Amino acid sequence: MTDEPDRPLGPALRRGWKRRCPNCGSGPLLKGYLKVRDTCPVCGEDLHHHRADDGPAYLTILIVGHVLAPLILWVYGVWRPEPLVTITIFSVGVVALSLYLLPRLKGVIVGVQWAKRMHGFGRPPG
């Protein structure tokens, strides 16, 4: 642990959501769909310390389930569509929303870890 104070959390969260470096906000955070870069190509911030692990997947499942489950119940209660139509439409919705949220939530988790100086983000270089 370090005695240094936490970095500003709000900007780190916004930059992570945009999939940008939590330090400068300019450099890309990800090198592909979910692979976090080792360092920021713009400011040189070390990013390899992150420990996002299963957090983004868990949050994605949590959010998608809480958004789409009530929607499915409401649609079925109001219109009573055929089961095959319901499955088809909501399967596409689940996949699309999951693919949209997953890299953004990974960026948010890396941003939180950077702001709170977790997992080596607080160590001085060298």
Automatic annotation (TrEMBL):
Keywords: Membrane, Transmembrane, Transmembrane helix. The chain crosses the membrane at residues 57-77, 83-102. InterPro entries: DUF983. It holds the Pfam family DUF983. This is DUF983 domain-containing protein. It comes from Halodurantibacterium flavum. The lineage of its organism: Bacteria, Pseudomonadati, Pseudomonadota, Alphaproteobacteria, Rhodobacterales.
